[in-house]
Each structure stands twice: as C-alpha cells, then as structure tokens.
Amino acid sequence: GASNQGELGQAGQGFVDQLMFWHGGGAGSVVDGAAENRRLRRNAALGNSPTQGATPTLKGGS
Hints:
By secondary structure, the chain is mainly alpha-helical. It is 55% helix and 6% strand. The protein is globular, with a radius of gyration of 15 Å.
C-alpha cells in the first residue's frame, strides 16, 4: 500500500545519501564520476568491497 511506498522511498533516499556521502565527502566536494566508476569496476573485478579505496573527487568545487 501507500505506507510501504513511503518507507521504501525513505530507505531509497538514505541509500542514495550513503552512496553520495560515504567516506566523509565534505560539502562542496564533487565526486569524479568517471574515476569513481573505474574504481568501483576495478574493486568488483578484484572481488573487493565497493568501499575499498578513496572516492575520487574533483578539485576546486564550489
């Protein structure tokens, strides 16, 4: 029902926030999407945790 959708929406948003902000990414730091994709694919290929390694960020964000 509608209540379940609300719960899923909340959980989904929290998951997105975790993906965006895990590893202590400070406000104003912008993730380098291409480099992050390479890092995640490399970890997956090696059987490593997706959280292994630092999230690459672009310098000089807002």
